[in-house]
Amino acid sequence: MRKIPMGEMAYQEKNGVGWLTFPSWDAFPGVRHAFSTRIGGVSEGPFASMNLNFGRGDPREHVEENFRRFCDAAGFSFDTLAASAQDHHTEIRRMTAADCGVGITRPKDRESVDGLVTNEPGVTLVTYYADCTPLFFFDPVHRAIGLGHAGWRGTAAGMALCMAERMQQEFGTDPRELFAAIGPAIGPCCYEVDEAVRSAFCAGPLPEAASCFTAASNGRYQLDLWRANKGALLAAGLLPEHITTAHLCTRCNHRLLWSHRATGGVRGGLAAFLTLLPEEEG
Ligand SMILES: [Zn+2]
Predict the structure, then answer these.
(1) I want to staple 136 with a disulfide (CB 3.0 to 4.6 A). Which of 32, 116, 118, 181 is the partner?
(2) How far is the CA of 40 from the centre of ligand 1 (A)?
(3) Residue 65 lies in a domain
(4) Residue 64: which H helix or E strand, with range?
């Protein structure tokens, strides 16, 4: 399968479905990850064509068919999907095989879940995006994974720190052995924010939060969510050589990726996928 480099990720297609992966994670045979694009779904109009968000007005059967097509192409089992219930907080849920189907073929059963962790193969974690920051985690020593959703609120509240701490509590993860990848999100090129956002960051747990803001000419700021999340991962104790940043802006790449700001909010959604493979496949 031909892979086309994009930032620190690579784009590939199968059966007309396109997705992104981190080549730096090819070294991990025990885990499979992917980030969706707009390419290869059945949705129409403003959702064309690979919309993986059930909550934006696209018919449910289209979104479910998109999930099935995505899973077939990228190598995930549809029946093992278990999704978040994101609301820009830092609640994290440990998923088990009993949770498969939650938020996909079964209703959501929680109000607020922005992070998912598991150490069970046979569960595929799913989180949703359209400019916010996807955070992928893999602990190869304890064979555990995590997916976190961090928009500006989650980033400011230290979602990356919370994920590393929760994996430590649940699985005994040593942050120095933990790998993380920061996926496609709105970049410092396109993310203008106001003083209220800057104040919230500077009041939060992130060290050097102010360094993530560049003054714009109109009294506003450009916010670098990639840098803020990397700073949080370093503060959590991860090694710099264990952190990959996609350096892919969703707004700049809005023909390939869903961007809330590029579409004015009338849009489909992207999803991140992460699963542990059974030992014999790994
Ligand atoms: Zn941009």
Answers:
(1) 181
(2) 23
(3) yes
(4) helix 60-74
User: From ligand 1's centre to the CA of 262, what distance in Å?
Assistant: 10
- Judge whether 134 lies within some domain: yes
Across the range 7-19, mean pLDDT stands at 98
Paired tokens of 139: 């602990």
Q: Per the omega criterion (within 30 degrees of 0), is the bond before 49 cis?
A: yes
* Cα 255 to ligand 1 centre (Å): 12
**146-168 pLDDT tens trace:** 999 999 999 999 999 999 999 99
Q: What residue numbers bound the domain in which 173 lies?
A: 4-187+224-276
Report the separation in Å between the CA atom of 187 and the middle of ligand 1, taken as the mean of its atom positions: 5
Identify the CATH number of the domain in which residue 155 sits: 3.60.140.10
CA–centroid distance, residue 131 to ligand 1 (Å): 10
Token digits of residue 257: 């990726």
CA of 260 to the centre of ligand 1 (A): 12
Is residue 74 in a domain?
yes
HSE at residue 24, side-chain half, CA atoms within 13 A, is 18
Q: Residue 184 C-alpha to ligand 1 middle, in angstroms?
A: 10
**What is the number of domains present in the chain?**
1
Within a domain: 213 = no
Q: Tell me, what's the pLDDT at 1?
A: 78
**Whole-number Å distance between alpha carbons of 43 and 78:** 18
